Amino acid sequence: MYKIYFKQAIQMLKQNRFISIISIMGTAVAITMIMTIIVSAEIKNIDLAPESNRSRTLYIGGQTIRDTIKGRVLNGSVSYNTIHEHLPHLKKPLKKAVVSGFQKDVSSVLNMEGSQKLITGFLRITNADYWDIMEFNFLQGRPYTEEEVFSGVQYAVLSENIARQLFEDSSPLNKKIEINFQLYQIIGIVKDVSPLFNDAYGDVWVPYTSNKEYKHQHYEILIMGRDEKDFPELITEVRKYEEQYAREKAPEQLYLRGPENRRIHSMNVWGSSVNELEDEIKAQNRKRVFIMCVLLLIPAINLSGISLSRIKKRTAEIGVRKAFGAKKYIILTQVLYENFITSVIGGILGLIISYIVVFWMREWLLGIPANSPIPIATLVSPVVFIAVCLACIVINLLSAGLPAYKASQTTIINSLHQNDKKS
């Protein structure tokens, strides 16, 4: 039966190609806008090397210290004192990474020892656990260890691109490099990382203790558990240490922004308390739902007019089928199924166009340079395809649901009478 419906749907598309093109393109435009939003968000959240543990990592991107007497509020990244006093006492995490924030506009000066050739690169300062949470592809050498970080040794890991610029075809391992005019020994080379990965991207990585000013710098914290089931206990631990801080340093109160899961972290919302952060997240979610509804509803209303005109042309056919015993739900199912074929064609076309839009507008949508690659694996995920199917179903129901229902409810006499009037 559904094979017959499919053949009829294809035949109807061929009969009036202009109307069919309008229907398909109307669906494609709606799907394109929706999928551009979904794909852009999904790229930032899925597990993909080197950020392979996003789904089981919590992020603390900043802190707020509030003086309850003077009313003074200090916002910023997490200070070394906070990390030194609280991070070692967290019992539940498997790994606790410390990393400098993602500031793509801030560059460091790099040059080979004894060379006058200066280049700029993005510097990340981290602890040893950072290399366990991230999964870099080491082409040569190794990362620095916890003992080396503790001792403040001046080791560096370079990206493949920076190593090539500085040393050309020679091996850089165990050679010296100046970073901001401070000498480091190279112990590893990693494959280049796309700026799409905010926490993994960099040109050179060094232990955070190798900088003399490390106690006066600010960082971000990544906390990795076994899986998402550990998140409630991890968050509870952090809240307890905030309470301890308030008791020990009254009248000051500490709030660590988060810990946030990956999806909330990628939303880049800010709040100086748990309640403020929750309000911001709810506001962002309401905006997204509203935008999705508008993007689905407006084209669906326009397409419903086309669906209604098509069904009116088939009133005689519907009347005859009812006269031969076709049930109302059969008529309803056929009309929705035939329209769904149009929605699927438009959905596939819309998904392809959305990928083109994401590549073309990557700097605006994703905040990465226009010439930076986007890994294909980030674009293909179950979430994306499920979202396409749901969007097609919703557009189908909104655009053809009412016309199909009216057609199924029309009596045999009215269907044939209406056809006589047209004659």
Can you give me a brief rundown of this structure?
By secondary structure, this protein is α+β, with helices and mostly antiparallel strands. The chain has helices spanning 2-15, 17-43, 80-86, 130-133, 146-151, 160-167, 231-248, 262-267, 274-312, 315-323, 328-360, 362-366, 376-379, 382-409, 412-422; strands spanning 57-60, 63-67, 73-76, 78-79, 95-99, 108-112, 119-121, 123-126, 138-141, 155-159, 176-179, 182-190, 204-207, 218-224, 252-256.
Overview of this structure, please?
It is a single chain. With 423 residues, the protein is of the alpha+beta class. Helices cover 52% and strands 17% of the residues. The chain has 15 helices and 15 strands. It has helices spanning 2-15, 17-43, 80-86, 130-133, 146-151, 160-167, 231-248, 262-267, 274-312, 315-323, 328-360, 362-366, 376-379, 382-409, 412-422; strands at residues 57-60, 63-67, 73-76, 78-79, 95-99, 108-112, 119-121, 123-126, 138-141, 155-159, 176-179, 182-190, 204-207, 218-224, 252-256. The strands form 3 sheets. Strands 6, 7, 8, 9, 10, 11, 12 and 13 form an 8-stranded mixed beta sheet that branches.
